[in-house]
Amino acid sequence: MTTSLTREDLFDAHFLDRLRTLALRLRKRRQLMRRGMQSSPATGHTREFKDYRHYTPKEDFRAIDWRLYARLDKLFVRLYEEVQELHIHIVVDTSASMEKPFIEKRRQSLRFAVALAYLGLSGQHRVSLYSMSDTTRQELPPLRGQGNIEKVITAVTKWAYGGVTDLEKCFTDFRPTRQRYGSIFVISDFFGREVGSAVEAVKRAAGWSGETHFVQVIHPWEQRPELDGEVELADVETGERRRFWITKREVKLYAEMFDAFAENLSSACAGRQIDFYTCRSDEPFEDRFLDLLMRGGSLASA
Questions:
Q1: Coil, strand, or helix at residue 55?
Q2: Contact 55, 77 (CB under 8 A)
Q3: N or C: which end of the chain has fewer CB within 10 A?
């Protein structure tokens, strides 16, 4: 059963204001680093007004702004910049392990999802939102326009969390559109039924059309559990329970296996040109979100 979280629990009153500030910080940081626009195979573009400049006789007279001429009695032409249109696909893991026993994972993952949606909508890109557990479900039709951010927030706040994660089926079922170049963000802990299921699922993701980013959200306890003595552990997705006698040696071995799991997943992604990024649920959201965007990509550059 999903733990009740209100909109205020997930996104405080100043969350959207902070997102606007983040967008400005990102723009300034890119300017300071003097990074150029990243090229992509995208074909769709729109023209956005940028500025005016004086008309010269060799230019096309159709570019003259006649309304401005009527006011100032001077000839100016309107300048436009080409803006790349993207389709941003945001896929969020809503299986039980993303909420229990650490509800902070749900909060952090949804903040990433809403922030990515806001950045896409404010950039006049199309944004599609999906949930995944046993399969992938499209939760909202493609949206465009900054005013639709409220629809995104309302939708994710109402999501029910539970069930098992079937990464291979989810990634097989997911079919991003080929009509427009896309950026795909999958936000999950990538815990499957078996340790190696995440690496196998990466092979399915390699066939997606678009630039793919995996954002792994984990709780620090999942990396380094504080256990000692006799314990009973329960699988939050299957309900299976087992008793163990755990010593510091077993905890150390577990930590090494977890690190190996993350490293194998990262290597599998790198081999298929998928960006892999890990964020802990206790880390400051704003800093980690900026770090994700500064790694590069079409959304951060558009």
A1: coil
A2: yes
A3: N
